[in-house]
Amino acid sequence: MRRPPILRRLARLEAQTDMPDGAGGFIKGWMKLADHWVAITPTSGMESFEGSQQASRVTHRIRLRCTRALRPRADQRFAIGNRQFDIRAVFDTDGRGRFLTCLCEETP
Fold it and tell me: What domain count does the chain have?
């Protein structure tokens, strides 16, 4: 039997939204949806060259307790302090609806 994750980090779940820009238009911004206690584990990293600049990509696995009220989606992100993690996929970890695993990519 798998042990449940130790949820030590407080993460903000955010969704992208249109926000007024003050001149009658809108800009894209992020709105807080909920706070979740999570376990975060780096899974891979890769460096490459895009054009003439070096770029790095780091992926993480973020696990959280499943809540019926607000389930993370692939078009949302987590924020932990100054770090942002774009959600790429979400799935039920144990098939019993207790925990979710989010595969995320950290944005620079």
Answer: 1
